[in-house]
From TrEMBL:
Keyword Oxidoreductase in annotation: yes
Protein name as it appears in the record: Arsenate reductase family protein
Family: Belongs to the ArsC family.
Signal peptide span: none
Entry keyword Transport: no
InterPro entries: Arsenate_reductase, Arsenate_reductase-like, Thioredoxin-like_sf
UniProt KW keywords: Oxidoreductase
Domain of life: Bacteria
Amino acid sequence: MEIWINPACSKCRSALTLLDAEGADYTVRRYLEDVPSPDEIRAVLGRLGLEPWDITRTQEAAAKELGLASWARDADSREQWVEALAAHPKLIQRPIITAEDGTAVVGRSEEAVRDALGRG
C-alpha cells in the first residue's frame, strides 16, 4: 500500500493516523517532492476508475492560472489534464491510497481510508 501525501494537509495527516492505528503496512510518497510522472498518474487513474479532472483541485491558484475551469472534460482533453497534473502536482487531490488488490481510493474521509484498508 502506498499513500500520496502533502504533509501540510490535515486530511493526509488524519489518513496516516488511521493507517498507523490499524497497524497498516504502507509507504509514504510526498508527491510534491517525488512528483508522479504522467504514466504514474495514468496508472493511478486506472486504479481509481476516475478521470484526471475528477482528482484535480480546481480551486488551487495554479488551476486558475491555467484556466482549468474552461478545459473540456472529454477523451480528447484527457492527456492535457494528465500533463497539467504532472507539471503542477499541487493540483492532485490528496491523499491517494493505492491498495494491494490493484485498486486505489482518494482517502479524504475515514470511510475511504478504511475502504483501502479492507482491500488489503
